[in-house]
Write a structure and sequence with these properties.
The protein is an all-alpha fold. It has one domain (12-70). 59% of the residues lie in helices and 0% in strands. It has helices at residues 12-23, 30-55, 61-70. The protein is extended, with a radius of gyration of 16 Å.
């Protein structure tokens, strides 16, 4: 697989945590860690889009919160006001 080099800016604490995860063997490299995170986010977005299609709209926030609780995930951060 070929890769294209890009430049991104990350908060120091996040970069440090990722470097630590790579050092512990969670990923082959920082690039691999970021690529995996992006794939995961894209898959989540596709899943939510499909769920909204099936339900005829976005799932209720209460349902998403219940699923996150059942899966042992942290509560979703509130969206910033627009």
């Amino acid at each position: 697989m070929t890769a294209e080099r890009v430049t991104v800016s990350l908060p120091p604490d996040l970069l440090g945590a990722v470097r630590g995860a790579v050092a512990e063997g969670a990923a082959e490299s920082l690039s691999a860690f970021v690529a995996d995170a992006l794939r995961t986010r894209l898959a989540r977005n596709r899943g939510l889009t499909e769920l909204a299609r099936v339900l005829g709209g976005p799932p209720p926030s209460e349902a998403l919160a219940a699923v996150r609780r059942d899966l042992g995930l942290a509560p979703q951060a509130p969206s910033p006001s627009r």
